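Target chain:
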Amino acid sequence: MDDPHSEDLMVPVEGSHLVMDPQITNCNMNKGLLIPKIADGKVIFVLPWQRSLLLGTTEYKYEQPEQHPTVRFQSVAEIQSAFNTLYPSLNWPPDRPGAIE
């Protein structure tokens, strides 16, 4: 921190997560799934959370935090694509059925 020429140790990122009805996937609600690296280098996960499933994540670097952040359509599409690859039988279409708004 004292050296203005040193590399950043931390970089702020924006991450998106989706909350999904567990009935859509027939997932075991007692266990989570973490895949440490998919094709684009990101970490993805499925975690039981408050009787739902938490799916994520996407990461984008940003300069300033937003006062009222929203989920990018691209983030939803990336999460859908990752999970459609892992669970082809899910066949999760772009209109996000099963996602809890």
Q: What stands out?
A: Residues 13-90 form a domain with the D-Amino Acid Oxidase; Chain A, domain 2 fold (CATH 3.30.9.10). The CA atoms of residues 37 and 43 lie 5 Å apart.
